[in-house]
């Protein structure tokens, strides 16, 4: 082959390599880049993309929908929706919540089980943002006694956006919740300084299970957004939002 032809082939191969390699590298960097969160904690992972319910499992189809950047309760029936990408024992869970329509506080579930499936996932219920509660474990199904401790605080309007943080320590069976009202027209990047509203303690209740949002009965339209999870917090006893 003439020398000129060989040179042209070699130059073409180098050019193709120069074009292809950066494209692959850029794609890999984009997919590996973590979502930003407003709390300055690099260990928090996003639980909701604001557009779809990918990563979530509902007890019945149609209970929830992705609407205007929120996980929106459609008010059709009692049930739950849980984060199916990871179940946790110790955890840090932060989210924004409000109730659009309804007469029962929003409710979330921790330390439940999906095997078997029972009402409310047999879980411990926290009621953000003011700290109501229930114990759905078999043999309990009551408001609990000394397991729960409520804290005096200025009542938070459930019809406006609030920020709540739950921390759970599987080794001690202690779970705590702190909440605060967000300013009007706050975005998912807005934060506030939380106050502790509810504690739970029962070492026999702590187990690896799903984090879930519960709709207590039909007619309730609760919304959640800005959901973040640290599935293995260095300090599962303390808050980062207070």
* Arithmetic mean pLDDT: 89
Percentage of β-strand residues: 25-35%
Record field, number of beta strands: 15
Helix/strand-derived category reads mainly beta
**Global Rg:** 23 Å
The end-to-end span amounts to 75 Å
Give the proportion of residues in helices: 10-25%
- Which geometry do the CA atoms define? globular
Q: Segments where pLDDT lies below 50 for 5+ residues?
A: 1-33
Description:
This protein is mainly beta. It is 12% helix and 33% strand. The protein has one helix at 3-32; strands spanning 45-46, 56-58, 64-67, 70-73, 79-83, 91-101, 107-110, 124-127, 132-135, 148-150, 162-169, 174-181, 195-201, 212-215, 221-230. Strands 1, 3, 4, 6, 10, 11, 12, 13 and 15 form a nine-stranded antiparallel β-sheet that branches. The chain has a six-stranded antiparallel β-sheet with strand order 2-5-14-7-8-9, with no helix packed on it. The N and C termini lie far apart (75 Å). Residues 1-33 have low confidence and may be disordered.
């Amino acid at each position: 082959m003439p020398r000129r032809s060989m040179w042209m082939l070699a130059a073409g191969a180098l050019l193709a390599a120069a074009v292809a390699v950066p494209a692959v590298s850029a794609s890999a960097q984009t997919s590996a880049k973590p979502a930003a969160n407003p709390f300055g904690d690099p260990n928090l992972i996003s639980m909701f993309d604001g557009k779809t319910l990918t990563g979530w499992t509902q007890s019945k189809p149609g209970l929830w929908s992705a609407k205007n950047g929120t996980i929106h309760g459609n008010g059709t029936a009692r049930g739950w929706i849980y984060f199916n990408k990871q179940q946790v024992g110790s955890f840090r869970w932060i989210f924004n919540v409000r109730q659009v329509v309804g007469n029962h506080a929003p409710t979330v579930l921790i330390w439940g089980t999906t095997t078997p499936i029972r009402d409310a996932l047999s879980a411990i219920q926290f009621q953000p943002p003011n700290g109501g509660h229930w114990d759905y474990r078999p043999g309990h199904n009551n408001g609990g006694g000394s397991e729960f401790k409520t804290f005096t605080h200025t009542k938070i309007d459930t019809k406006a956006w609030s920020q709540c943080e739950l921390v759970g320590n599987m080794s001690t069976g202690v779970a705590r919740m702190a909440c605060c009202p967000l300013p009007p027209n706050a975005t998912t990047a807005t934060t506030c300084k939380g106050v502790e509203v509810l504690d739970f303690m029962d070492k026999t209740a702590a187990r690896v299970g799903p984090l879930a949002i519960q709709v207590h009965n039909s007619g309730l339209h609760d919304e959640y957004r800005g959901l973040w999870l640290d599935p293995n917090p260095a300090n599962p006893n303390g808050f980062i939002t207070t």
